[in-house]
Amino acid sequence: MRWLRRAGQILLHVEDSPSRVAAAFGLGVFIAFFPILGIHTGMALVLAVLLRLNKVAILLGAWTNNPWTIAPMYTAGTLLGCFLLGVSPASLGEIDWGLSGREFYASLAAGLRPLLMPFVVGNLVLGAAAAAVSFLALRFLLTRRRRTAAPAGPDPA
Length: 157
Fold this sequence. Notes:
The chain has 157 residues and is mostly helical. It has helices spanning 2-12, 18-33, 40-51, 55-62, 70-85, 101-112, 116-149. It is built from 7 helices and no strands.
């Protein structure tokens, strides 16, 4: 949990406006839910350069998808997609886990195929929602922190 506290401290000290830091982080969180694995860091850096956003903030958002969080994030997104598209997640029960080799992979593909669209749709929708919440929460925190850290005006004497 020290890494999470450290990431929060880094975000609080990024030199940019609260809205721009929050936008970069929120976009990074959306990227974290993006359904194509393996491109999150590259995608975040390219968008940061193209949109002139803070690279640290966007990477911290994108890296919310990591080995500890990937399974719960993608599972929640897939279940949301199943709900939105009216697809039952029961096809996972059809996978024969006792098979091996080519037969196992054929069974796995048959069980996962119906969940492909729910995976894509659900993770994009959940990513958009998480990005919006992240943007609003971080902008609020940064704005409040900067207001309280601002030096007081001259003392009326």
